[in-house]
Amino acid sequence: MRLGELLGRRVLDGAGDDIGWVADVRLVQDGPVLPSMQAAFRVTGLIVIEHHATHLFGYERHVGPALLRWLVHRRLGDVWYVPWEDVTVTATTVEVVRGRAELQPLEENARL
Length: 112
Prior knowledge:
The chain is mostly beta strands.
C-alpha cells in the first residue's frame, strides 16, 4: 500500500462509529539502510481530523498566531494522533482499536 492511499480515508473507531479522516502520516527514518545509503522510513502513526480538509499547514499543532490557530481548528474540528499499532487498514477504511473518547489529541503528542 502506498501512503497516498491512506490520505483522505474514513476512520472508524473501535465501535464502528465514524470519527473523521486521515489527514497525515507520521514517519520516522530508522529502518534498514537502503542502496541510496539512507535509512528507510517507517510509519509511526496517523493524524486524524474530525472534518474533511485537503491540506494541513502546521497550525493544527498549536503553533502560530492564536487567531489563525482558532480558525484552523474551527475548520478541522478535533485533531488526533493515532499510533500505528492501534490501526487496521481495510479495503475502504481505517479502523482504530480505541473509541473516540480514548483517542489522544495531537497537541498532547508533541513531535520530538
